[in-house]
Every structure is written in structure tokens, then in C-alpha cells.
Backbone:
């Protein structure tokens, strides 16, 4: 039973030839569990490695081999369930999903069908001007398949079983998303939560997180339409593009009097289109049944409580705390808490310092620089202590904000103690009014016509500020310069 | 399981023949050709089946080629060939022995056990084979008692249930007589005989032939010609699968894969697989009720007849072959231990066996009762003609 939890919002409608349309989106996200070994075997679950280097007898489905559950993967699934504020099922069952494919050596995937380990939960999205609650239907554990490689031989395909048996969490959302932006925000938020929990690294380019996206369109607030599933989307950007394309494709068909055929489609990022993969009629009959090699998975509340006690502060809680304790804006708080490492960095910088100044420097200069260089925070050449010192130097008037930006550049590129750098490179700002006054007088004397113009039009005084700063090698305190110029020119 | 035997100093002599993927009750489905039983009817040279699927194990023990043999039992594959060859075979409680390394037929029913010359040898072998195994999640961590010590133990005061539903209509008179003989022997040994009811018995065989093929259809999916085993080329991957599996599997295996695939298919799952699982629960409940009422073990015939000739049932409806397991499948469905002990010879001079069914993990009582029957019935050896 599908329940519509959302109120139609005209801002999200797509305008078609016959009127407005609303997109309805639900997602199945496959997230690779962070664990040393695979879900049912002791082989390494590490990404990469030579083809077929991480394959046990179980993963290769040799006759007589049996699966044994990896307890750490169970813990990771429970942690994730707790992070999604979801119901944890103390008893769940592994089923076999049967189908033939060369990269599926057992001829079945071990998954959870009727009784998943995690039940209903919630993901909260901060969208411009509103908070959107997205329902999570369930989370279950399953095995990944291997990889078929088709470009190594003219007539044969090769199979790499390194991924075969790696643990995945399939996180199924309710059909609660109403735009590609919401869908992208959902993926991004889910990734943030998983990374905070340390249960999935969220690297979509390595395939450790991928989404199957169900898209349908309807007249606003009407009955749900027939959906199409876009399989295996491996980037947030592609997810947005795929949904936009797919919604318009469906609207086009419906407005031409056609009907949507339920089917599975693939997104082609090069062309930006979705293409039919198989129709509902061609869909597999997976013949699910409980795996007789595995007992039902059972644990008690104490097991769950112990995991709950070890959970880190989650993004939503951290964000609320940042707003309350640091007085930063909700937007800044959201940016600062996108990643655990970012939030930690900010908290180190902000400790004992003005929180808003710290937030500005962290977000604008520091994150800006990381993004520009495409670096992760872990690869940052600058520490929180160094950035904090720069902010201290501004606060105690040793340097101006402008000098601070130069200093940031030096520390970023060359490293070093910011306070020592200021001294050794003579970057201390000039606060000696006598020196500034002399420089101001010199500039006014050399440009009498400009001085006259500025007296008539005070906004032109900015030119003098620039000249004085230039003359003092940027070290003059800009505020003092401004005041002295105004006084000399008699501007209020 | 073999590692346990090796650790205890056992010497492995070789591998024995069996029905293909353990699917068969006569050894006639074997890829290598049928095993001939060391037994012959009095005054006849006709080759007889040793039973199945572990017919090679039973024959080798009956022919005294080896001291004992390992075997597996999914619906009767240890007990039925043991009964046909005058040997002792025990299928222990599900979870008693590790299934690791055993080519799976029906995972929820498969269990390993020994076939031996007498009850004492079977007890020694099972003691060695049984253990919990971290590599088999369905193995159970219950201490393994000294089964050998149970052989010869008094059975005085044990309550033996005789299930009235096992008195099949048209039951072979010899078998019926043997069963009565067994009752008398145990009564003489001091056991108390009580009639019991296992009301869902008549659904056991049909339910078994849904559950076992369903699991088999999935377990055998790995034999697809991609990584190992036979590969018959095809025009594309699906064609290769079809060619390989068509050529590689025998008729009986194909039949069961088809049945299993069918009963798990969308639209049939509830009517077949799910219903069979419910029947299975009821069958288990039947036994539990009896054990709760104080029954220590249950005595039944092991098979509905003595061994038959190779090819004798070739043209018959496969269901007739499946009926061989009518007394044994309930035990697998309930996960209980069952032992087949030789109890006499048919009028034609062929061995006949009785089956004892025990409480979960109470194999020791079966060895005690088996020992009592063996003591009363004597032992039976095939006359050497080979």
C-alpha cells in the first residue's frame, strides 16, 4: 500500500503541454557495508585488488561450501538502522533470490525478502525554505554479485569475483520524493549519515553506493502513476539528470495519449537519456525462499543497545547543536555538518574563538580552497590549529582581514606557524596613525583633482583607500586608513 | 566430518558410487552406472539394487570391502540401502554432523551418517563424525556422548511407540511380520510398547517431494558450466546454460529441478512450497507430541519391501520409486535421528530392516535399542559370489 505523505507544491511541478505534472520518486540505494571481510565468507571485502584475488571457496560457490554470517556486517546494518531512526527487527530471515548470470556463481543471491533486519525509518532533508521528511521503508542485508568484463576478449566475457559476496545494505525509501532536487538531497543526506556512522564509505564512483530510482508522474495530488525503475545510477548528478529526463519522457507519452509501460530502464550519462532494459513481462521470477543454509538472524535488545551506545552524534543532532551553541545560520550549520571531519575541523577552529568568524573562515576560505583543489579534508595541508591562529591574529589586530588572506595562502602552500610567519615576513598591520596619516597626506597632495572630486562625491574616497594600502604594502589597518582619509577630506 | 574421522585415525580407502546428486532410491540414477548389491535372492543370479542413494556405501560395507562408510541421508538415503543390504545405517539428528564439504541436495534435510557392519561400529563411527562446525551454521553445539557405551545398555522400561499410521494399506505381509517380531523382541527386552498416532504421516511423502526438489533446484543452479564441471558451448550465455545443464544432468535430477523450480514459481509458491512447509511443521509437531507424552523411541519398518532387481522398476511411474522412502522421509522432515537395523531375511533370502526413530540428539537410545534388536535378530552377511 502506497501512502502519499506530501502536499503537492506548485514550485516543484513540471509544466507540460496539458498542464502541470508532479513527479513521484522512490529509491532503492545499495550501500556497500564497510567491513574487512564479506557477508558470508572470510575473503577480503577491500575494493580493487587483482581480478579474482579476493575470492574464497564460498564466494566461488564451490560444491559443499556453506555461508556463515559475518557478525560485523550485522552490526553495521543495525547501526545504520539506528542512524535512520528505524525499527530494528530482532529476528530477520535470509532468502535466496534465484537467477542465472555468469557473475553470480551460486545461481542465487542471498538477500532478505519478507523479513528484513531493519524496518521503517526516516531521513530528514533541508530543502530551501522547507524541511522534507522522507520515509524509509526498510533496510536489508544482501550479497553483491561479481563483475562481468566484456572488453578483454573478442568473443568471450571475463568474470571477476572480487565483489562476489561483499555485503550490501539495500535501503528502500517510500515514494516520498517530489523533485530531482529532493532526490539528490536524499542521496546526499543518506551518504552523509552512512559516512558519519562509518557503515559505508559512500564512494559512488567506486560503486560502493548506487541507486535504483523509481520514477512516475501524475497530475498534482492525483493517483500514483505507473513507474519505471532506472537501474544502477552511480552519481548524484546523474540521478538528477536521469529523473528530469525520465519525468519529461513519461509526461510526453501521457500527453500524447499514451500509457506508461512498467519497465526497467538504464541511464546513459553520455546522451543524458534513459533506455529500456527490460519490460515487466521480461522480469525475472526470482523464486525467493528462505535460505536453508542459514538460521534466522536473531539478537536481543541488549545487542542493539550496545550498538546504540557506541553511535556517533548524527548529522541532524550536530546541526541543531551548532545552531544552538555557535549561533551559526541553519545553512552554515548544514554545510559544516555535511561530513564528520568538516564538523570536527570547525569545532576545533571555533573553540575559544568567535564562532561566526570561525564559520566564515572555515566555509569560505578553507572549504573553498579544498573544493578548488578537489581535496578531501583528510588531505588538507592546513590544520585547524593553523587556521585558528590566523583568526586570532585578526582578532588581536595584528593583521587585517586582507593580510590574513595572504597569510592563509602562505600557510596553505608553505606551511608554518602563522604568528611566526607574520613576524618573519613583516606582515604585521600598521596601526601607527602617524605613519598612516603621512601616507594619506602624500596621496592627497599628489592627486588634488581627485581629492576635490571625492569631497563632492564621498564614495570616491575608496580610491584613496586603495592607493594608501598600496603605498603601505597592504599592511595598514584598512579601518584606520578609511577614517583618516575621511577626516582629511572632510567627509562625514 | 572427514577431518574428524582422520583426526581419530580413520583410514580413507576411496570414494563410493551413489545416485546422481543423491537423488534416487536404487542407485540406478548414478552417472557411473548402478551399483550391484552383494545380495542375491536364494537360487537366483539376478542383479539386485542395493538401495539408494548411498548404495555404494551400503554395498561396500555389506561385501566387507571396508569396515564402514560415510553416507548422507536426505529422505532415507542411509537407512533404505542399509536395510536392503543387511547393514546398520544411522541418520543422526539434523545439525549433529557438519554438512560442510557435502555436495548439497536439500540443505534443510541433508545429514551425514555412517553405514557399518553392526550397531557398535556405527556407534563408534558416529561418535567420531559428529561435531559442531563453525563452517556450518546449521550444525548444533551439543556434546557428543559415548555412543559405543550405549550399545548393550538395557532398554528395560523404555517406552516404544508404534505409529498406527505406518500400517499402510496393502503393506507387505513379510514386512508386517518383521515389524511384529521387532515389537516382541523389544517387549522381551523389557521395553514398554505403546500405540501412538502421527496423524500427518500421509502428507509427508508429497510434502517431502516439494521441499526437497525446491531446495535442490536452487542448490544445483551453480552447475551452470561457467566456472567448473561440464560446459557445452552455445550461441550465447543462455544457450550455453541450457546445453550444459541438458547434457550434464540425468533424467531424475532434471525431473526434480523442474519440480522444484515449478513449486517455487510466482503463483505456485503458496500452494506448494509454503503449504509443504506448514505440513512439515505439523509432522514435527506429531513427533513432539509423542515424545512429550513419554515415548522414548518409535519403531517402524525401514522399507516397504526387500531389494528389487536392477531395471525392475525402470518403466514404472517415478512415484512408485519414491514410495521406497515412505517410512524414512518423515524423520528428515522432522529433523530427528533414525537408525535402520537388520532384523531378518525375506522368504527369498534378502535382508529386511527395522527403523528406530529417536528424540532430537538422543542417538544413544537408538544405539541401545538397535543393539537389542541386533542381539535378538542376529547378524546377516551376503554369501560371496563375486
Residues:
Amino acid at each position: 500500500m502506497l501512502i502519499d505523505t506530501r502536499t503537492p507544491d506548485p514550485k516543484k511541478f513540471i509544466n507540460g503541454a496539458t498542464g502541470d505534472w508532479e513527479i513521484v520518486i522512490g529509491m532503492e540505494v545499495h550501500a556497500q557495508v564497510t567491513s574487512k571481510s564479506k557477508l558470508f565468507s572470510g575473503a577480503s571485502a577491500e575494493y580493487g585488488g587483482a581480478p579474482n584475488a579476493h575470492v574464497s571457496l564460498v564466494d566461488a560457490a564451490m560444491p559443499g561450501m556453506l555461508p556463515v554470517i559475518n557478525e560485523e556486517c550485522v552490526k553495521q546494518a543495525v547501526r545504520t538502522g539506528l542512524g535512520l531512526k528505524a525499527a530494528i527487527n530482532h529476528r530477520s530471515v535470509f532468502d535466496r533470490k534465484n537467477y542465472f548470470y555468469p557473475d553470480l556463481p551460486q545461481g542465487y543471491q542471498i538477500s532478505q525478502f519478507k523479513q528484513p533486519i531493519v524496518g521503517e525509518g526516516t531521513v530528514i532533508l533541508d530543502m530551501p525554505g522547507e524541511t522534507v521528511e522522507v520515509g524509509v521503508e526498510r533496510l536489508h542485508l544482501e550479497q553483491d554479485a561479481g563483475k562481468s568484463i566484456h572488453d578483454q576478449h573478442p568473443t568471450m566475457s571475463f568474470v571477476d569475483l572480487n565483489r562476489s559476496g561483499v555485503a550490501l545494505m539495500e535501503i528502500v525509501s517510500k515514494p516520498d520524493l517530489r523533485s530531482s532536487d529532493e532526490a539528490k538531497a536524499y542521496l546526499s543526506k543518506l551518504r552523509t549519515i552512512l559516512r558519519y556512522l562509518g557503515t559505508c564509505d559512500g564512494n559512488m564512483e567506486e560503486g560502493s553506493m548506487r541507486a535504483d530510482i523509481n520514477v512516475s508522474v501524475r497530475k498534482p495530488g492525483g493517483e500514483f502513476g505507473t513507474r519505471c525503475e532506472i537501474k544502477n545510477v552511480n552519481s548524484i548528478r546523474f540521478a538528477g539528470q536521469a529523473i528530469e529526463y525520465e519525468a519529461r519522457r513519461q509526461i510526453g507519452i501521457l500527453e500524447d495519449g499514451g500509457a506508461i509501460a512498467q519497465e526497467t530502464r538504464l541511464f546513459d550519462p553520455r546522451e543524458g537519456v534513459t533506455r529500456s532494459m527490460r519490460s515487466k513481462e521480461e522480469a525475472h521470477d526470482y523464486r525467493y525462499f528462505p535460505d536453508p543454509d542459514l538460521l534466522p538472524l536473531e539478537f536481543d535488545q541488549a545487542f542493539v543497545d550496545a550498538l546504540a551506545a557506541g553511535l556517533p552524534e548524527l548529522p541532524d543532532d550536530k546541526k541543531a547543536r551548532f545552531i544552538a551553541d555557535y549561533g551559526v545560520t541553519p545553512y552554515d550549520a548544514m554545510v559544516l555538518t555535511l561530513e564528520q571531519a568538516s564538523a570536527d575541523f570547525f569545532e576545533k577552529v571555533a573553540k575559544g574563538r568567535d564562532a561566526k568568524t570561525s564559520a566564515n573562515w572555515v566555509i569560505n576560505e578553507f572549504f573553498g580552497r579544498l573544493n578548488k583543489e578537489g581535496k578531501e579534508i583528510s588531505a588538507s595541508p592546513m590544520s585547524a590549529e593553523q587556521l585558528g591562529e590566523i583568526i586570532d591574529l585578526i582578532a588581536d589586530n595584528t593583521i587585517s582581514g586582507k593580510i590574513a588572506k595572504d597569510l592563509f595562502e602562505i600557510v596553505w602552500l608553505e606551511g608554518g606557524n602563522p604568528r611566526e610567519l607574520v613576524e618573519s615576513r613583516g606582515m604585521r598591520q600598521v596601526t601607527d596613525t602617524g605613519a598612516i596619516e603621512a601616507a594619506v597626506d602624500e596621496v592627497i597632495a599628489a592627486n588634488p583633482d581627485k581629492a576635490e572630486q571625492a569631497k563632492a562625491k564621498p564614495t570616491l574616497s575608496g580610491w584613496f583607500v586603495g592607493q594608501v594600502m598600496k603605498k603601505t604594502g597592504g599592511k595598514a589597518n584598512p579601518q584606520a586608513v578609511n577614517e583618516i582619509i575621511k577626516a582629511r577630506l572632510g567627509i562625514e | 566430518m572427514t577431518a574428524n574421522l582422520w583426526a581419530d585415525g580413520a583410514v580413507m580407502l576411496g570414494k563410493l558410487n551413489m545416485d546422481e546428486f543423491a537423488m534416487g532410491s536404487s542407485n540406478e540414477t548414478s552417472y557411473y552406472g548402478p551399483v550391484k548389491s552383494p545380495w542375491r535372492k536364494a537360487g537366483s543370479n539376478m542383479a539386485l539394487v542395493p538401495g539408494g542413494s548411498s548404495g555404494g556405501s551400503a554395498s561396500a560395507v555389506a561385501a566387507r570391502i571396508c569396515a564402514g562408510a560415510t553416507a548422507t541421508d536426505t529422505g532415507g538415503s542411509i537407512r533404505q540401502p542399509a536395510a536392503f543390504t543387511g547393514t546398520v545405517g544411522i541418520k543422526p539428528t539434523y545439525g549433529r554432523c557438519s554438512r560442510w564439504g557435502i555436495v548439497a541436495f536439500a540443505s534443510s534435510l541433508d545429514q551425514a551418517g555412517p553405514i557399518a557392519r553392526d550397531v557398535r561400529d556405527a556407534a563408534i563411527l558416529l561418535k567420531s563424525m559428529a561435531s559442531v562446525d563453525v563452517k556450518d551454521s546449521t550444525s548444533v553445539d551439543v556434546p557428543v556422548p559415548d555412543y559405543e557405551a550405549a550399545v548393550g545398555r538395557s532398554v528395560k522400561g523404555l517406552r516404544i511407540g508404534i505409529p498406527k499410521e505406518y500400517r499402510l494399506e496393502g503393506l507387505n505381509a513379510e514386512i508386517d511380520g518383521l515389524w511384529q517380531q521387532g515389537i516382541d523382541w523389544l517387549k522381551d527386552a523389557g521395553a514398554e510398547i505403546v500405540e501412538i498416532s502421527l496423524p500427518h504421516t500421509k502428507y509427508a511423502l508429497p510434502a517431502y517431494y516439494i521441499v526437497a526438489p525446491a531446495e535442490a533446484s536452487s542448490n544445483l543452479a551453480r552447475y551452470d558450466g561457467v566456472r567448473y564441471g561440464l560446459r557445452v558451448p552455445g550461441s550465447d550465455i543462455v544457450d550455453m546454460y541450457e546445453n550444459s545443464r541438458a547434457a550434464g544432468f540425468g533424467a531424475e535430477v532434471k525431473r526434480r529441478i523442474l519440480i522444484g523450480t515449478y513449486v517455487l514459481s510466482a503463483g505456485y509458491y503458496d500452494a506448494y512450497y509454503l503449504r509443504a512447509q506448514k505440513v512439515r511443521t505439523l509432522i514435527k509437531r506429531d513427533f513432539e507430541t509423542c515424545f512429550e507424552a513419554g515415548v522414548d523411541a518409535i519403531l517402524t519398518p525401514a522399507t516397504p519391501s526387500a531389494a528389487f532387481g536392477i531395471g525392475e522398476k525402470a518403466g514404472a511411474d517415478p512415484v512408485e520409486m519414491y514410495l521406497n522412502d515412505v517410512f524414512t522421509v518423515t524423520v528428515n522432515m522432522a529433523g530427528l535421528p533414525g537408525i535402520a537395523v537388520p532384523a531378518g531375511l525375506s522368504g527369498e533370502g534378502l535382508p529386511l530392516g527395522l527403523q528406530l526413530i529417536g528424540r532430537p540428539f538422543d542417538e544413544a537410545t537408538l544405539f541401545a535399542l538397535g543393539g537389542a534388536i541386533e542381539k535378538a535378530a542376529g547378524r546377516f552377511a551376503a554369501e560371496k559370489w563375486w
